[in-house]
Design goal:
By secondary structure, this protein is mainly α. It has one domain. The chain is 69% helix and 3% strand. It has seven helices and two strands. The longest helix is centred in the last third of the chain and has 37 residues. It starts with 16 loop residues before the first helix and ends in a 17-residue tail after the last helix.
Length: 233
């Protein structure tokens, strides 16, 4: 059985999926750019990427709820592929010869961009383990409660997904970068901040979901699909 939705998706022109997908990839890229910048908030050491990444979970919940798990699965792999493409370009550009007059600029770029490939590798592993799980839980619960309680399903699935992401990405990307005590502090604040962000964003996310379902005339229920992250269909 294929995914069930209110309207046949083949007969509906999707007006907002492209924008939402581009926004998702943009936020993922931005997170990787600033991930290694550490700031202090209320005496806590905080990665600036932490301030941005909760938006990806809000967007993934919105996309999964309206357009279905399969669309979100394609988007997750697309974002990972783009990260590796950008990381490869950075690596090549960083190793091109530069004039001696630009040595300070070159060194600055190297310092900022050198961790990008490491962070991309860490993100891809963490995403496979957590972002897919977030969408899976949201989609499965939607079937069980017949589409009700998006706010509760979103909060629960995001809490699980973000906790796993925080642990996996944090240790893969930062274990040898920060002292262990500082890393624990960063991860603790990160999870607390993400939970607060989820609570704050759940109302606008719920309103957005209602708007999209009405505007797109679409509400996918992922009944009978293969939830395997590595499945093409």
């Amino acid at each position: 059985m294929q995914s069930i939705d209110i309207q046949n998706p083949s007969s509906v022109r999707l007006k907002y999926l492209t924008f939402l997908s581009a926004l998702y990839v943009t936020i993922v890229l931005l997170t990787m750019f600033v991930e290694n910048k550490v700031i202090i908030i209320a005496s806590f050491h905080v990665s600036t990427g932490t301030l941005i990444i909760p938006l990806t979970y809000t967007l993934s919940d919105i996309i999964t709820e309206v357009y279905g798990y399969r669309e979100m699965r394609k988007l997750i792999w697309c974002s990972i592929l783009i990260l590796y493409m950008v990381a490869t370009l950075f690596f090549l550009l960083m190793h091109l010869p530069a004039p001696k007059s630009e040595i300070n600029v070159t060194q600055a770029y190297n310092i900022v961009l050198q961790p990008f490939f490491r962070d991309t590798l860490a993100y891809s592993i963490a995403a496979v383990m957590s972002v897919f799980l977030n969408s899976y839980i949201l989609s499965k619960w939607k079937i069980l409660v017949r589409g009700k309680f998006f706010w509760l399903r979103s909060l629960g699935s995001s809490a699980v997904g973000e906790f796993i992401f925080m642990i996996v990405f944090g240790f893969l990307a930062f274990f040898q970068v920060f002292p262990f005590n500082e890393l624990k502090e960063i991860l603790f604040f990160s999870f607390c901040y993400k939970i607060i962000c989820n609570l704050i964003s759940i109302f606008p996310a719920s309103v957005t979901v209602l708007f999209l379902k009405k505007s797109e005339k679409m509400d996918v229920y992922d009944v009978g699909i293969n939830f395997n992250p590595f499945e093409a269909q």
